[in-house]
Specification:
This protein is an alpha/beta fold. The protein contains twelve helices and 20 strands. The strands form five sheets. A ten-stranded mixed beta sheet has the order 9-7-5-2-10-1-11-15-19-20, sandwiched between helices. Strands 14, 16, 17 and 18 form a four-stranded mixed beta sheet that branches. A two-stranded antiparallel ribbon has the order 3-4. The structure holds guanosine-5'-diphosphate, 6-O-phosphoryl inosine monophosphate and magnesium ion (MG). The site of guanosine-5'-diphosphate (GDP) has 21 residues, from helix 1 and strand 3.
């Protein structure tokens, strides 16, 4: 009886989808616990490249139950479209298999409009959100104004509540941003149609997870985004609006910490960030361009080019602490092949003062004053995509992985050497 929590350790897009797909082999239930369709999780398997935004990344494993948990904000239009795409591929997304927590919150089209209007109003200081309405939906949730998924079970009151919220948002959109209002009755009618599709999937998510754990089953908790996008522990305000850390699995799904047996932190072998905000090891030169090109670093959700930089071990140490990591799943090691010299940040320095602690809590102005201190490591020339055992990696690649383990104090139990399921070196079950 145990829960395995998978988290992103950087700024998202670390490869959580493929790691969850791997760990799902040993799970009975896979549950997304935070975020919404701002997430884009890729699974390359069985001849498909799935880009999942809301449906948990274990969905390709038949017999596994998939839950969208209470901590998630759901755009029903997106969820229905994703279910249709999966069904067209022959994947079972019926109500017995894909469950939606009644306590999850709804994203309305006016949340998306507000997200866009706020970003536009920020001008050059915009956060670079995905404009999926994530921030406004979580804000309404915290203000106790929002519509929850469970309301879809009562079509008459659901339509009324949706229309009432859309009208309230419309007033704000018009008065504050001079934006066009959205037709509340049409939105309510659309949402009733989605409700008809989604109502059979509604469940008590916390009870589902609790029953699975009590029956000795393994629950795999899938985090979205990454540590530095966490609302409390990230690079605020350049963050998302949910708890991306391992603790978010407990609050987002509704179970207790003693059930957690493993916390797996997914880390890219270098660092990327999409959207605005500080990024100490960012590379604005041809090395950064090369990593972007070889690593195909373009957003899964928005297609935006991702900012690329060296691996930052100060961040991974912070991730080990803030999440209580037991293991690191290191992805995209193959992308570094062919670079003669590699750098990893091992500390930050400011005015002759050195720190090995990521300065998260004092804000982005403080973070901007720190310069990374690099250690140089040898690169390797060989193509490693066919390697399946750690001892068969070129010595410099082995040393790179060992340096991460040494510095972070957490074992690397999975190494991605390509995007496909089999392109991995796996050390634990
Ligand atoms: P997530 O949001 O954390 O699930 O990550 P994304 O799916 O947004 O981005 C990760 C990208 O890297 C996807 O395109 C994956 O197919 C790809 N990927 C994952 N692991 C590896 C790997 O080990 N090597 C390579 N080359 N690509 C990988
Ligand atoms: P996955 O789960 C990378 C970023 C956005 C922006 C900030 C706030 O695929 O790793 P939001 O729309 O959430 O209000 O945007 O967070 N962001 C992500 N970056 N991967 C993600 O998800 C992200 N989800 C949000 O780019 O900087
Ligand atoms: Mg992603």
């Amino acid at each position: 009886m145990s829960a395995i929590v998978v988290v992103g350790t950087q700024w998202g897009d670390e490869g959580k989808g493929r790691v969850v797909d791997r760990l799902a082999r040993q799970a009975h239930l896979v549950a997304r616990y935070n975020g919404g369709d701002n997430a884009g999780h890729t699974v390359v398997a069985e001849g498909h490249t799935l880009k999942l935004h809301l449906v948990p990344s274990g969905v390709l494993h038949p017999g596994l139950v998939c839950l969208i948990g209470a901590g998630v904000v759901v755009n029903p239009e997106r969820l229905v479209a994703e279910m249709d795409e999966l069904a067209a591929l022959g994947v079972d997304v019926g109500p017995a298999r894909l469950k939606l927590s009644a306590a999850a919150h709804m994203i309305l089209p006016t949340h998306r409009a507000l997200d866009g209007a706020r970003e536009a109003a920020r001008g050059p200081g915009s956060l670079g959100t995905t404009r999926r309405g994530i921030g406004p939906a979580y804000a309404d949730k915290a203000a106790r104004l929002n519509v929850r998924a469970g309301s879809m079970a009562q079509p008459e009151t659901f339509a009324e509540r949706v229309a009432e919220r859309v009208e309230a948002h419309n007033r704000h959109l018009q008065e504050r941003y001079g934006a066009e209002p959205l037709p509340s009755e049409r939105v309510a009618a659309d949402y009733c149609a989605y409700a008809q599709r989604l109502a059979p999937h509604l469940t008590d998510g916390s009870a589902l997870v609790g029953e699975a754990l009590a029956a000795g089953k393994t629950v795999l908790c899938e985090g979205a985004q990454g540590l530095l996008l966490d609302l409390d522990h990230g690079t605020y305000p350049y963050v998302t609006s949910s708890s991306t850390v391992s603790g978010g699995a407990l609050t987002g799904l509704g179970f207790g910490p003693r059930h957690v047996s493993r916390v797996v932190g997914v880390a890219k072998a270098y660092t990327t960030r999409v959207g605005a905000g500080p990024f100490p090891t960012e590379l604005l030169d041809e090395v950064g361009d090369r990593i972007r090109q070889v690593g195909d670093e373009y957003g899964t959700t928005t297609g935006r080019p991702r900012r690329c930089g060296w691996l930052d071990l100060v961040i991974l140490r912070y991730a080990a602490r803030a999440n209580g990591l037991d293991e690191i799943a290191l992805t995209k090691l193959d992308v570094l092949s062919g670079l003669e010299r590699l750098r990893v940040a091992v500390a930050y320095e400011r005015g002759g003062v050195r720190t090995e602690v990521f300065p998260a809590e004092f804000g982005v102005e403080s973070l901007a004053q720190w310069e990374p201190v690099y250690e140089e490591l040898d690169g390797w020339a060989d193509d490693i995509r066919g390697v399946r055992r750690r001892e068969d990696l070129p010595p410099a690649a082995r040393a790179y992985v060992a340096r991460i383990e040494e510095w972070v104090g957490v074992p690397v139990t999975f190494i991605g050497v390509g995007p496909a399921r089999e392109q991995a070196i796996v050390q634990s079950p």
